[in-house]
Amino acid sequence: MKEAVLRLARAAIGESLEVPQHVSLETLIADNPALKETGATFVTLTYQGELRGCIGSLVAYRPLYEDIIYNARSAAFKDPRFEPLCQEELEDIVIEVSILSQPQHLEYHDADDLKKKIKKNHDGVVLQYGTHHATFLPQVWEQLPTFELFFSYLCQKAGLGADCLASHPEISVYSVQKYKES
User: Fold this and answer.
1) d(Cα 86, Cα 45) in Å, to the nearest integer?
2) Which of 68, 83, 148, 168 pairs with 4 at a CA distance of 20 to 30 A?
3) Contact, 128 vs 170, CB < 8 A?
4) Are 37 and 29 in contact (CB under 8 A)?
């Protein structure tokens, strides 16, 4: 499955840059029928060790292969934080595809209670407060290794104050199956 997922993501980006990848979608699906199942993914691109794009879906609503293709192209060309990927970068980007479990709502009383319930290095987190929302994949724990740092940045990503947990936002958690090019 790993090879199929990564080849599909790279082919989607390469074909958009008019760099043929010679990948047969029909063969990939025939060899990996799970690609036809409904799934939600995030595609993360890094270039020379730095983030180059990251776009995804939190909720599964289309076949996994379609979600991978769409999010790979979006990460490469539509992440508003970056210029669109160019042909010269294609060979040197590293692609990571995360397949998400269904987010589960987490009940908590306060930040201390939440801290006890969050599984560091395992949980991806969705934070929502009114119209504000943001998510961090479980991989973000590598850069933000403490509960306080992780949630401070997540609150800010959602457009809220760094201490937004005091307002008791809705929290959901999910896990990922991640595939990364070496």
Assistant:
1) 13
2) 83
3) yes
4) no
Q: Going residue by residue through the chain, which has 182 residues, state the pLDDT in tens, using 9 for 90 and above.
A: 889 999 999 999 999 998 887 888 888 899 999 999 999 999 999 999 899 999 999 989 999 999 999 999 999 999 999 999 999 999 999 999 999 999 999 999 999 999 999 999 999 999 999 999 999 999 999 999 999 999 999 999 999 999 999 999 999 999 999 999 98
Cα angle, residue 138 at apex, residues 165 and 53 outer, rounded to 5°:
100
Q: What angle do CA 51, 62, 136 make, to 5 degrees?
A: 30
In our burial notation (b when 16+ CB lie closer than 10 A, e otherwise), range 38-70 reads ebbbbbbbbeeeeebbbbbbbebeebbbbbbbb
What's the pTM value of the predicted model, to 2 decimals? 0.86
